[in-house]
Amino acid sequence: MPFGQLPDGRQVERITLRGGGVTLCLLTHGARVQDLRLAGVDHPLVIGSDTIAPYLNEMMYHGAIVGRCANRIAQARFDLDGGTFYTDPNEWGLQTLHGGADGTSSQIWQIAAVSHDRASLICELPDGHMGFPGAMSITVTYSVLSGDTVTIDISAKTDRATLCNFTHHGYFFLDGKKTITDHALWIDADFYLPVDNTLIPTQEGPAPVQDTRFDFRVPRVIGTAGLDHNFCLNNSNGKLRPVASLTAPGGLTMEVQTDQPGLQVYDAGQQSIVVGLGGRKHGAFAGIAMETQIWPDAANRPDFPSATLFPHQTYRHCVSYSFQKGALQ
After folding, report:
1. Mean pLDDT across the stretch 150-167?
2. pLDDT confidence bin for 325, thresholds 50/70/90
3. Among 88, 185, 214, 316, which residue has the least CB neighbours within 10 Å?
């Protein structure tokens, strides 16, 4: 169904998927989740918008598939395959964030296939786009499965060595209140990445969460301490496994599973007021982004998991969000 129109006249379509008790609405702009509902819950579970305009400005990453290199690249440059590449310095004019200003979150994705509970979308990026080498083809498939689960599968191929690191950038809130500060968070990570004042990982590398505000190995309330950090997930062997959960005071729980080595958690502590679905106003700490991905600035850190994709390889990334009324056992 038509959803809106970009300033250049291109149309944005909306796709609705249903399965079990879940209704999921997607947009071709950014291949983003625009709305997510659970039967028996009278509010949305994500921060979305009823119109296209906010997605072109203050909500440009909300619900989108971001890349071709999610998170940050220090100094908007990296060395790869014998060359030095300079990417779009779209964050403070200093570094590249989420693939640059015209990354996949700003693209109109093409619909490849749709059924009642599954949709696949495709995005093609040319060689040199936002400064990155290699023409790249990306496919994302959203599936709504039994057990009130949303699964996102991302794959990509390139014709030249390049960076490849995608993530789903949804903002979740589970109880319909103004903030998620009273939600309980669990993360299966013994280490996290300390960052400098530009949110680039420091040279010290992973640090233990023990005795810090980043220790969520036992579920605890999020609060307002401020999170915009990568957690170095345990048992990172490329297989799908539970890595995190979020539980609202009323008992609704979301479990996150992924095959990725990192989880960037952002508590929206710096979010300015945005107008969401049904006219809801969302400010600081209104939702939490739980972005499964390769660690930030991996392009410049040989000690981190690699974000390099070569022509003979296929990038694959799976993440699932499962909802359950009542805390997980």
Report:
1. 98
2. confident
3. 316
State whether residue 19 is helix, strand or coil: strand
pLDDT digits (tens, 9 = 90+) for 278-300: 999 999 999 999 999 999 999 99
Residue 291 a catalytic site member: yes
Comparing CA positions, the residue from 2, 44, 45, 25 lying closest to residue 144 is 25
Q: What is the mean pLDDT of residues 182-204?
A: 98
Given CA atoms 284, 219, 24, 165 in this order, what sign does their dihedral have?
A: positive
Look up tokens 């149309």; give the residue: 11
Is 317 an active-site residue?
A: no
**One of 62, 98, 291, 317 is an active-site residue; which one?**
291
Given pLDDT bands bounded at 50, 70 and 90, which one contains residue 329?
Answer: very low
The CATH number that applies at residue 195 is 2.70.98.10
The domain total for the chain is 1
Q: Tell the residue number behind the tokens 């609705």, with chain if given.
A: 16
Which candidate in 29, 62, 98, 169 is catalytic? 169
Residue numbers of the domain that contains 218: 2-325
End-to-end Cα separation, the chain, in angstroms:
40
